[in-house]
Prior knowledge:
With 146 residues, the chain is mainly alpha-helical. It folds into 2 domains: 8-19 and 27-82, no CATH class; 91-146. Helices cover 71% and strands 0% of the residues. It contains 6 helices and no strands. It has helices at 9-18, 28-43, 51-81, 89-92, 99-112, 118-145. Helix 2 packs across helix 3, helix 3 packs antiparallel against helix 5 (99-112) and helix 5 (99-112) runs antiparallel to helix 6 (118-145). The longest helix has 31 residues, at 51-81. It is elongated.
Amino acid sequence: MPEFAIDDPMLALIARFAGCCSKLDVSEESFLRQQLDEIRRYVGSAPKEQTQEKALEWIAGNAERYRDDWKTNLIASEASSNRCPDCPLEDQGGSGRCEIHDRWLEVLNLYVKDETSSRQYVEDTLGLLRRHKERLRRSLSLENSR
């Protein structure tokens, strides 16, 4: 099976940073079945003699975007279901994700939906980390002053 490649440079960086997609179990067959179902829905109402033409029309107009969307959604799904490698909850045995991860997923989802640019994604993520660092610094300062 060919290696799963992430074409979007920002999503590739996100996948490496979050450590979520290094051992992704991706089935090309599953993707192709989903895409075929989409094509069938598209040609479903066309007269039988136009089915092949409509299928080719869908492929020409949508196949590349469909694959890109599928990869993007797969990465977003993986990122949301895993903890970051350095999650503070890991040592505490907590379940779920930390607050930072939840907020980061909100930013990631905006990027995945093309509602924000790569630059804005980076700025928002860095702002999230900066605010978290400041909260940690304040809490440590309070603990040390007691």
